[in-house]
């Protein structure tokens, strides 16, 4: 499957991002943000969530990830709890534009209470054959 966009995102607690965006910042905004937002690092629980109808799935710890791992996952609607946000964890997202995205945690910065206050994600968004 062709890649529509690939890049990094530093997502701060209490912020949302639009994985369909072509801006350099993935249109990161303070929650609740845009109705097109896809992923959210909660200000209260510090978990990674899908926004609205844009669900995420958490791949098993040993999964290599990739388009098919994300596209075929049946466990969408999950969140990645703050205690599990660690480098190497892979999330899959279905975006507002119905694209498949993979989000790999590359680094985490914890606050004084050992809760993530920002997370760096390596993101790949694929283009389905019938979209641009």
Output the keywords.
132 residues, mainly beta, 5-stranded antiparallel sheet, 4-stranded antiparallel sheet, 1 helix, 9 strands, globular
Account of the 3D structure:
With 132 residues, the chain is mainly β. The protein has one domain. It has 1 helix and 9 strands, in the order ββββββαβββ. The strands form 2 sheets. It has a 5-stranded antiparallel sheet with strand order 1-9-8-7-6. A 4-stranded antiparallel sheet has the order 3-2-4-5, with no helix packed on it. Strand 7 and strand 8 form a beta hairpin. It is globular. The termini are close together. The mean pLDDT is 91.
Summarize this structure briefly.
The chain has 132 residues and is mainly beta.
Q: Output the helix-strand order.
A: EEEEEEHEEE
Radius of gyration: 13 Å
Distance between the terminal alpha carbons, to the nearest Å?
A: 12 Å
Mean pLDDT: 91
* Helical content class: under 10%
Structural class by SSE content: mainly beta
What fraction of the residues are assigned to beta strands by DSSP?
35-45%
Shape, per Cα inertia axes: globular
């Amino acid at each position: 499957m062709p890649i529509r966009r690939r890049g990094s995102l530093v997502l701060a607690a209490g912020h949302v991002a639009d994985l369909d965006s072509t801006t350099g910042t993935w249109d990161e905004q303070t929650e609740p943000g845009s109705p097109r937002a896809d992923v959210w690092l909660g200000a209260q629980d510090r978990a990674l969530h899908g926004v609205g109808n844009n669900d995420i799935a958490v791949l098993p710890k040993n999964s290599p990830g990739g388009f098919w791992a994300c596209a075929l996952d049946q466990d969408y609607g999950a969140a990645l709890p703050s205690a599990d946000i660690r480098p190497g964890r892979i999330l899959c997202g279905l975006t507002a534009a119905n694209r498949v995205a993979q989000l790999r945690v590359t680094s985490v910065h914890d606050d004084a209470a050992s809760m993530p206050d920002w997370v760096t994600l390596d993101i790949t968004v694929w283009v389905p054959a019938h979209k641009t």
